[in-house]
Specification:
Elements lengths: L2 E7 L6 H8 L8 E7 L6 H6 L5 E3 L6 H10 L5 E4 L4 E3 L2 H9 L8 E9 L7 E11 L6 E2 L5 E2 L5 E2 L4 E4 L7 H21 L4 H13 L3 H14 L10 H13 L3 H14 L4 H13 L3 H19 L17 H14 L3 H7 L9 H10 L3 H7 L7 H18 L4 H6 L6 H11 L16 H13 L5 H4 L3 H11 L3 H13 L6 H15 L6 H22 L2 H11 L2 H13 L6 H14 L4 H9 L8 H20 L3 H14 L4 H13 L3 H14 L4 H13 L3 H14 L3 H14 L1
Parallel strand pairs: 1-2, 1-4, 2-3, 6-10, 6-11
Antiparallel strand pairs: 4-7, 5-11, 6-7, 8-9
Helix pairs in contact: 5-6, 6-7, 7-8, 8-9, 8-10, 9-10, 10-11, 11-12, 13-14, 14-15, 14-16, 19-21, 22-23, 23-24, 24-26, 24-32, 26-27, 27-28, 29-30, 29-31, 30-31, 31-32, 31-33, 32-33, 33-34, 34-35
Protein name: Glycosyltransferase 2-like domain-containing protein
Keywords: Coiled coil, TPR repeat
Length: 738
């Protein structure tokens, strides 16, 4: 018998089939047996094992891994023993076969095995380690140690590329990780009670804490291990401690110490890839790009040797960075960009030509006028809007940073790359008519926004092109337009023209525009006053259309959006203005903290409050008489006197429905329709069932030739009207408008 494969198992029904199936590749290639010792399985493990071998033994678990290993070894009949766990899979059986067929196999008493320790289930997410797991079957060979048992290695040892994939420490299996953590921690702490000066035990304890995601305890343990070897003359035997400590130092931002420790480790042995990895990362994070580049390049040199089959002699140090070559290639390109070594990027970009560094590649190519490279990176893939946006962004950036006013020259060299880019260049820079067939605005990008801004602001096209998009894109384009003073003017006029629009879709669009305007500092005081109340009226009208009274009265904070909640609370706050002005002011101040985005609006409301020596009690008592007198003055066409009294009353009853309606009537008589609509609109939101306000809105809108909105309010007034003669008049108007 050439080979015995020895396994100890317990409750491994999920892993065992995978491990045993991989061994079937050895069948008829070498003479081998499989020895399985079960230490107390309660699942289907033994049944699975017997399907692959008749050499299945039971042994009660003693809490000592070495005892179990040595028992399994005692059952082996082969000349050689391969020690295997159920969560390990032989990746390259041909390497194992090659080992036994080699002429020099008789020279060796043991051999190393490489391990790919899977961190997650992703194919390239692993770290590499090496252990001696293949031994001549001699009585001098045995294991020691309760946990992370160590073999008595018989030399000489052959270094091989035989590889096992180890799934046991994948962090995606929480229950398994937790079980192994608790088991290993208990055994290691027992070891420390017997010998608390063993650096290897502290090293294993650090790894155990790390497995349980307890970095502080892991760092404490590996620091203790390092402390125990500080006076040892030959530290080359303890590079595994240097390695783990460097990893934790790097993770907590101790970059200078990481560099110092790794350089010391490299002075003992230059074959460990991770030390170059850690130093390169540390220098990069310290913004010392040139030194980082040197160690990255050293990493690549050693990585190439390992890919070509170079075998590391010191097997005590694991390797986490071998699988990170792609990440390192990307970071090396980024380092070159930061140090402005654009030639390096141009010469090496094919090693890592991925979308996540597209802007860096574009910048290097365009900066060095290698336009053919731009065409090359898009040659075999479909160009997206994101790619177009990146190209334009980089062209603008290069122009600004080089202080050259020749962006059109750059763009001329990129014509023909894509129709959308050609369209942008021709429309923005050459004033050639926009070809709308080659551009779709339904997915926002800044380059499209620039096209849209010119199309709307310079060519005076309608906002309807934005209005028909989905909400997120719509908001993004409107935000960009609002940054231009022409956009602000356009939005203000749109708000004015569409005030009291009753279509839900139109109201939603109007709300977005007014929300942008109302947060702006760039609107004159007189215009802001009118905008403010138009916005509140439109917002409340929209909210009342979307939500029922139960929602508005009880559940609005759970159901409505944040801006809707703000306007509902503001609307409710207006109702206490006349009752308790001081409380009104306090609540406004509180709202600034809760809704800082509306600070401009709230500050305006606070500043417009007039606190003087007026006898408010007298005004409250005389309110009804004053309103009756105002109505008489209006009927007698004494408009100026009526307006003066209304303005005084408005200071105390700013949000009173009847006063606002009368103010609206006064402005209507004076021909000031915009102000009239604002006051009467404000009146209606506080008393939605008021016939006078509803009818007055319909009348003014009709005078403004806004027949669609006028018809809506006439129909509503008809329902509210209690006078049959007036109803007949309204019906005639409705027929005319329809």
């Amino acid at each position: 018998m050439l080979l015995s494969i020895a396994m100890i198992v317990k409750n491994e029904e999920n892993n065992l089939p995978r491990a045993l199936e991989a061994l079937m590749a050895l069948k008829n290639k070498i003479d081998y047996e499989i020895i399985i010792v079960d230490t107390g399985s309660e699942d289907n493990t033994i049944h699975i094992a017997k399907q692959y071998t008749n050499k299945v033994f039971k042994k009660e678990w003693t809490g000592n891994f070495s005892e179990m290993r040595n028992y399994s070894i005692s059952k082996c009949k082969g000349e050689w023993i391969l020690v295997l766990d159920a969560d390990e899979v032989l990746e390259n059986p041909n390497e194992l076969i090659k080992f036994f067929k080699a002429k020099d196999v008789k020279k060796f008493n043991s051999a190393t095995i490489k391990f790919k320790n899977m961190i997650t289930n992703k194919e390239n997410d692993y770290l590499i380690g090496t252990l001696v797991r293949l031994f001549r079957n001699r009585k001098e060979f045995y294991y020691t140690g309760r946990v992370h048992e160590q073999p008595k290695i018989l030399e000489p040892t052959k270094l091989t590329n035989i590889t096992l994939i180890h799934y046991g420490y994948s962090r995606e299996s929480f229950n398994l990780m937790n079980y192994k953590y608790e088991r290993n921690l208990k055994l290691l702490l027992e070891d420390l009670k017997e010998d608390n000066n063993n650096p290897y035990t502290y090293f294993q304890l650090a790894q155990t804490y790390g497995m349980a995601n307890m970095p502080d305890k892991a760092y404490e343990s590996i620091s203790k291990a390092f402390e125990l070897i500080k006076d040892v003359k030959d530290k080359s035997k303890y590079l595994y401690i240097y390695h783990l400590l460097s990893m934790y130092l790097n993770s907590i931002g101790e970059y200078e110490r990481t560099i110092e420790l790794c350089k010391e480790a490299l002075s003992y042995r230059k074959e460990h890839l991770d030390f170059y990895y850690f130093i390169g990362k540390a220098y990069s994070l310290l913004n010392d790009y040139k030194k980082a580049e040197y160690y990255y390049d050293e990493y690549f040199k050693l990585h190439k040797k390992l890919e070509e089959g170079y075998i590391v002699e010191d097997i005590s140090v694991s390797n986490i960075s071998f699988a990170k070559k792609k990440e390192m290639l990307k970071e090396r390109i980024v380092l070159a960009f930061k140090s402005k070594d654009y030639d390096y990027i141009i010469n090496n970009y094919l090693l890592y030509n991925e979308d996540d560094i597209e802007e860096i590649l574009l910048y290097a190519f365009i900066r060095k006028e290698k336009y053919d490279k731009v065409f090359a990176i898009y040659k075999d893939k479909e160009i997206s809007d994101k790619n177009i946006n990146n190209i334009i962004f980089v062209c603008d950036k290069v122009t600004k940073e080089t202080l050259k006013n020749d962006i059109l020259t750059i763009y001329e060299n990129l014509l023909g790359l894509d129709k959308r880019l050609d369209n942008y260049i021709n429309y923005i820079y050459k004033n050639i008519d926009l070809n709308k067939k080659d551009i779709e605005f339904d997915c926002y990008y800044s380059y499209k926004s620039r096209i849209l801004a010119k199309y709307i602001l310079e060519e005076k096209n309608s906002l309807d092109i934005i209005k028909n998009l989905n909400k997120n894109d719509m908001i993004s384009y409107l935000i960009d337009l609002n940054k231009d003073y022409r956009g602000i003017d356009l939005f203000y006029q749109y708000s004015k023209d569409n005030f009291l629009n009753n279509n839900l879709e139109d109201l939603s669009f109007l709300n977005i525009i007014e929300d942008l305007l109302i947060k702006s500092n760039n609107i004159e005081k007189e215009n802001y006053d009118r905008l403010l109340y138009r916005t509140i009226i439109n917002k409340i009208n929209f909210i009342k259309k979307v939500y029922n009274n139960e929602v508005l009265n009880k559940y609005y904070k759970k159901i409505c959006s944040k801006d809707e909640i703000f306007f509902i609370e503001l609307f409710n706050l207006f109702k206490i203005y006349s009752v308790d002005t001081v409380m009104y002011i306090r609540k406004l101040r509180k709202m600034i903290k809760e809704y800082p985005e509306y600070k401009v609006l709230i500050d305006y409301l606070k500043d417009s409050i007039q606190l003087d020596n007026i006898n408010y009690n007298l005004i409250f008592n005389e309110k009804e008489n004053l309103i009756n007198n105002i109505q008489i003055l209006i009927e007698n066409n004494r408009i100026k006197e009526a307006e003066e009294i209304l303005k005084e009353l408005s200071n105390s009853f700013k949000f009173d429905s009847r006063i606002n309606n009368l103010l609206g009537v006064v402005h209507y008589i004076k021909g000031e329709y915009e102000q009239a609509l604002t006051y009467i609109g404000l009146s209606k939101i506080f008393n939605n069932d008021d016939f006078d306000a509803t009818y007055n809105l319909a009348l003014i809108l009709q005078n403004l030739n806004r027949n669609k909105e006028s018809l809506y309010y006439y129909k509503e007034a008809l329902i509210l009207c209690g006078d049959e003669n007036i109803k007949n008049d309204i019906l005639e108007i409705i027929k005319f408008l329809e």
